[in-house]
């Protein structure tokens, strides 16, 4: 057969194969929203916030008040702002309550959705973390606290009514709530999330419970003043934080972790709520205004440190908070922070590792790579894998490759059971251990079953 005929046959075969392949439907474009439409959506779905009666800090704006508008005054030092806020009465604090918002559209899994993001900024975080099986208490006090809540909406057939006034009534007709994702704590703690079930409708405004001192948020869909897993949350995370006013870190959530929000609770409502006597209203401001305002100032590193503060070395390495990012976040309105919040456990548990251990009673350097898979089942363990090199003092390097099942005990502790190959012995072995994560540091005592040996390593993940 001549070459032209061969080429023609190949072209015909490829064309036939392409023609027989099913065509993938084009993804819909994001929903275009005007400024007026975004403001109407934000006001309509603004949640009711329910605080502990002993709460000292309420959400406010980082933009200082000014007679001629909110964009001319340079921010004060963080310590002065905290002191000024503490001098206010509770009524004055509630009068200054404000939430930032931004509304954007994106395409997820082939369908367009609208995300309403609210920023709850507090001038101070006052919280004490209490260990579970390991008895410890750590104060988590720092300036600035930013908690985010996302309300994910799906459009209805009336979204693009050409002649409708873009107001609260239009927003209620045009969109339906599909999910609410409320931030709990940073690090590896997942958010409190509720996904609307089939044939279920959530009517705004939603009610969110707020944790005492640290301001974690969780839905209260049955309005009983308590967070109840399975009722106020549909997420199937290993660790369900909920609301923990006393700072307990156990994996298993108990109703005693929080005080019931009863008639003594403090409530803040959005702009569309009319009964302001029993529920004072907070104001809404576009988050972009805050970012633009802060970006106008040409601040030196010293000025920025005075205004925003700086995370201490201890918290930077052994905690999960970065206060430099809390007063004025810089991320754009595209949903990346929402995705990061929902996948934060995998991110916190994965990365390059370096540290110290012992090999044959010799101190050794450890460096390698750790991967983690968050299995979305409350009963099945997660999976972790490590490939590391060990460089002992005065001895030949060794290599280890291990795969673990990881079962959470509390917010920082995991029980490990797995198998690995160890070059020093040239064989595989069953390994059991305990994994303690403190910020970027990880302490892991482990036992090799067949060899009958014990070792412990301290590593940092980056």
Number of helices: 10
Give the ordered list of helices and strands. HHEHHEEEEEHEEEEEEHHHHHEEEEEEEE
Helix-strand category: alpha+beta
State mean pLDDT (0 to 100 scale).
87
Key attributes of the depicted protein:
single chain; 462 residues; alpha+beta; 8-stranded antiparallel β-barrel; disordered N terminus
Topology at a glance:
Elements: H1 3-20, H2 35-44, E1 48-51, H3 78-87, H4 90-95, E2 98-108, E3 111-125, E4 128-130, E5 137-139, E6 142-155, H5 168-174, E7 175-182, E8 192-195, E9 207-210, E10 217-219, E11 266-268, E12 283-286, H6 287-295, H7 301-308, H8 313-318, H9 336-342, H10 344-349, E13 351-359, E14 362-373, E15 382-392, E16 398-408, E17 413-422, E18 427-438, E19 441-448, E20 453-461
Parallel strand pairs: 1-9, 2-12
Antiparallel strand pairs: 1-11, 2-3, 3-6, 4-5, 6-7, 7-8, 9-10, 13-14, 13-20, 14-15, 15-16, 16-17, 17-18, 18-19, 19-20
